[in-house]
Amino acid sequence: MRTLYVSDLDGTLMRDDKTLSDKTVEIINKLIEEDVCFTYATARSIKSAREITGRLNLKLPVITRNGTALADNKTGKIIKRAIFSVDEIEKIKNELPELYECGFVSSYFGDEMMKVCLKGQHSFGMEKYIKDHKDDSRMKQADSIEEMFEGEPGYITVIDDKDKLENAYERMKEYPNWECVFQKDQYGDEYWLEICPDNSTKAKAIMKLKEEIGADMLVVFGDSVNDIPMFEIADESYAVENALDEVKKIATGVIGSNNDDCVASYISSKTKVLL
Length: 275
Known about the structure:
Layout: E1 3-8, H1 9-13, H2 22-33, E2 37-41, H3 46-53, E3 62-64, E4 69-71, E5 78-81, H4 86-95, H5 99-102, E6 103-109, E7 112-118, H6 124-132, E8 139-142, H7 145-148, E9 152-160, H8 162-172, E10 178-184, E11 191-197, H9 202-213, E12 217-222, H10 228-233, E13 236-239, H11 245-250, E14 253-254, H12 262-271
Parallel strand pairs: 1-2, 1-12, 7-8, 12-13, 13-14
Antiparallel strand pairs: 3-4, 4-5, 6-7, 6-9, 9-11, 10-11
Helix pairs in contact: 2-12
């Protein structure tokens, strides 16, 4: 039996301080040396993820941007990516006015993905995001809506209070040709509405990878709403102790805290690969 192990990053493989412990890095690199099939799936971009996972010697592609892009963790190169169609872009422009004050468009310019928001007044959540990313060279403010959508748009992010975004989520999820995720921020009180091109979810990307490597079994780890689809398609799914109740409810089991190397230690115990 060949098993593919896939872990979420924030709140699962990562500690609350947004790092991987030396122990987790050591265990996972040992697992990979012993040909255990392991990778991660995250809503982060590959650049953001690699700032945390750069010490992992991963052989398999990593799943980023909630399944819209597969990337090489060692080089940061994007292997596969999904983008919105022209018609979908027009629909987003016309039916998601919240985007202009509360969000940004992530677009590809060659191999680089830029995050473009509109100049002007922003919601508290978006203003916080801009401040937190003031040193990020990929962050850009556009003078017009058309400039905001330049390049090849592949991801939409809107950040605000829950009650201000619920109506937008209800509207956008009705459209069958894209994927929507709506959830509370891992590190704050604001909510994120994220829209991805069709067939771009963690679960769908994982299933394609499972087929490509010829794995017989899929075991996943997570903590949040966007992990639920991959829990539903896995043979076994494990929620960390700090996971949302709705995630724990559908999990095969609940393991330790994300602050205690629980994912790496669990895989090590199951594969009998010990340090």
